[in-house]
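ARCHIVE CARD
Drawer: 12
Card no.: 0347
Subject: one protein chain, sequence and derived structure
Cross-reference: see card 0346
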Amino acid sequence: MCQHIVILAERNGQQYISQCEHGTVHLIWDGVGLHLSAEAFNRLAAHILKTRANILELGDSVSQGHCRICVGKLSLILPVEDFLLMVEMIDEVMPQVNLTGNGQYHPSVRITPPNQLIPPVLN
């Protein structure tokens, strides 16, 4: 169980990226969480950043589209607008992700306990 969480970037209580003392990067987006090793997160982030470049190249023709992020058997479909917000956050944290998992972090990041999130209600 994670005891020390470093919030690397946060947009609101439901959209943030953190890293724990185990080196796991936690990407939380609207209550959906991806919990990846730092290396796996970096591979996913590189692909996501490349996808952003492709989207920006296409311009307005894809502004009403959706992006699908697949990790293992999990698929997350986001409107392009939300995807681009997520990419901004990912781009922001890339220099801060601790690849060694040794608990040593840049002094500008803050350590906070994880927020209690209200689980979504599915009907």
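Annotation on reverse: The first helix runs from residue 38 to 58. The longest strand covers residues 5-12.
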